Amino acid sequence: MTTRNRKTIAFMTAVLLTASGCSGVGSGISGEEEILLDMPVDDGFEALVDEPLEEIMLETSTTSQYEESVSEADSSAAASAEIILPKEEGKILRILCRNEDVKNAFEGMYGTENLPEGISVEFTVDINLTSDYEYADYLSGMTGSGGTNPVDIFVTEPDYMYSQINSELTLPLSEVGFAEEDTADMFGYTIELGTSKEGVLKAVSWQAEPGVFAYRRDIAEEVFGNSSPDYIAELMAQDYSLAAESLAEKGFYITGSTAETYRVYAQNKTYPWIDKNGGITVDAALKQWAEDMLSDVRNGFNPNYGLWTFEWCETFYGENNVFGIYLPVWGTEGVIENGGSESGIWGICSPIKPYYWGGNFLCVSADTDNPVLCGEVLKALTCNSEAMGKYVLESEDYFCNSRNAMKKIADGYYSEFFSQNTYEVYLEEAEKISAAYRTEADTELDNNYTYVMQNYINDYASYEDCEAEVLESWK
User: Fold this and answer.
1) Which CATH class is domain 10-35+211-353+441-474?
2) Residue 76 carries which DSSP code?
3) Is 369 helix (H, G, I), strand (E, B) or coil?
């Protein structure tokens, strides 16, 4: 199978062409907004450019292009069985989202032609929101209020959905027809992310976003004389300091941002930030991140660009002296590969520890007046392996939350751009990820920890003082 043609992401291009819209930080971080870890890819780039602020109401009523591109048999597989709605169900299925990802998925895997007679779908896409915090607040205001135009389904993300699935704003998916066997083909970490602290499944995703280490093969050949994924993965895991020193001697940084590496450590901790009694714990993995990043910056192995700054974004593209970058599938397939030959000669390999980054999750609002239809739509988008696999091949959703679909795609796949079977790496990593030890406080504490610890990493303050500031801020 050859590599699919894909469009370059417009927002990344805008970032790189509009230097004035991003502030570089050199070896220091000058503002909290540059270190935030919870910015999703689509809106991360959107936040860096000036966009008109508006709310768009999109009502779909035409046959989806995806439906026209598959056979009648495939259409039957993608669509649900005929739905008989109780009389009290609403006539409009309202879906609240932050971009058009779910609209595209709906059209690609379900289609308006499969809606029950007399039912229409309405997507509310609010691009007037430039941060996860604003969108989370917006969701809270739009759900739980009842009224004559209730939200039925809303899109959320791992970095801020934990409070939503642990509230009365969301319905248990068992109440809209989900059973345990419906999630059997999903990657385990996505089920963990969508499950409340009471063990109730309240969110599912059609996507999975396993993280990898993307590296420059041309630099690897120059410095190490070997650019194979297995060699680089073992070198990074077993001889990181030697690799970093060897790169530095040739004028290269091993990575470009200390914040970029944080997820690799934080998602492999052994204690939650907040225990069941409300106590706070700084896990050893987080302390190790701070120590390792201090060493990298001191030794000139990492320039410490701020996350989402112009300098960091440039490490995806063009001529630069950064060896590698920790990215999930949206970054490798959707950004680096779309950069084409100008972004260098690339490969991907397993990271030093498994991690994830991003992904859209679907929740059913407790306000819904369409519970039966909500369940059918969620199943069509997240439980239909055949439809999900076809959608991966025909869209810019590069990796779906179906083991069976991705195994079929990976079988015999070869990426000409990366010179390897990238899907084998993604599959292997997706199975390793754990989303254990999550708490409602994670996003706030993770952001504060990475921000405050820049003073330690840049040798401005002691670790003890920085940790004390983090703990004090939580009181």
Assistant:
1) alpha beta
2) H
3) coil
